[in-house]
């Protein structure tokens, strides 16, 4: 849908540009015609002035020879008129070039409109077989879907970044806990070794305690026998 609608949107934009270009071209053409009228009038005035100046120069040749100041002024005026004429010719040439460029651009836009017209026909067929009432509704729907797709991609990117951050935090937490477990295991091994050593130390002391208890029992029995003997002797 995106591949099929994007050219049509470009087509609509190109049509709009073509209409704007057409209006600009018409304005340029109108301005060009007005400028041509002004330039034509100026040309006529210039030729008239040149003819008048020529007649005046022929008629007043003797006076101009006697009056250098008037001759210099006339030459300056003629030079200015020639400069104005060259300037107008330059403006006319520039306007012609601009007009030609506008025509070429307008022709290109017309060609693009003709090229993308098949998408307009395609959307008209889509409107006929769908619930849309007009082509503009299809374009609005397309723009809405594109915007939703963009939002979805941004949301997925945000969730992906959050998942990556959570994974990094989980890895750090796991590493810390593994280090703690390793430390506790080392402490447990040390305690087990101490416990085993304590058990190995208890056995001799238990043996010694048993010997002491046996000795005490023998002496207690001997003491009782002595008491019985003394008691018998006393009786």
UniProtKB/TrEMBL annotation:
GO terms for biological process: spermatid development. Pfam families: DUF4200. Keywords: Coiled coil. Residues 11-128 form the DUF4200 domain. One of its GO terms (cellular component) is cytoskeleton. InterPro entries: CFAP_domain-containing, DUF4200. Residues 85-112, 174-201 form a coiled coil. This is CCD42 protein. It comes from Thalassarche chlororhynchos. The lineage of its organism: Eukaryota, Metazoa, Chordata, Craniata, Vertebrata. The gene is Ccdc42.
């Amino acid at each position: 849908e995106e591949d099929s609608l994007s050219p049509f949107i470009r087509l609509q934009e190109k049509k709009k540009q073509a209409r704007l270009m057409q209006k600009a071209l018409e304005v340029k053409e109108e301005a060009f015609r007005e400028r041509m009228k002004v330039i034509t009038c100026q040309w006529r005035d210039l030729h008239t002035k040149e003819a008048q100046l020529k007649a005046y120069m022929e008629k007043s040749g003797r006076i101009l020879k006697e009056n250098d100041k008037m001759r210099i002024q006339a030459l300056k005026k003629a030079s200015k008129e020639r400069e104005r004429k060259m300037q107008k010719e330059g403006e006319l040439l520039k306007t012609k070039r601009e007009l030609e460029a506008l025509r070429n651009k307008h022709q290109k836009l017309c060609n693009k409109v003709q090229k993308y017209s098949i998408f307009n026909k395609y959307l008209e067929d889509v409107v006929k077989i769908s619930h849309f009432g007009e082509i503009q509704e299809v374009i609005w729907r397309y723009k809405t879907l594109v915007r939703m797709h963009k939002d979805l991609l941004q949301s997925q990117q945000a969730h992906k970044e959050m998942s990556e951050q959570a994974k990094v935090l989980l890895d750090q937490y796991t590493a810390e806990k593994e280090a703690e477990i390793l430390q506790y295991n080392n402490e447990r091994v040390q305690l087990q070794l101490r416990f085993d050593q304590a058990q190995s130390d208890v056995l001799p002391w238990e043996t010694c305690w048993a010997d002491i208890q046996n000795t005490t029992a023998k002496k207690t029995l001997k003491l009782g026998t002595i008491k019985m003997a003394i008691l018998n002797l006393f009786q």
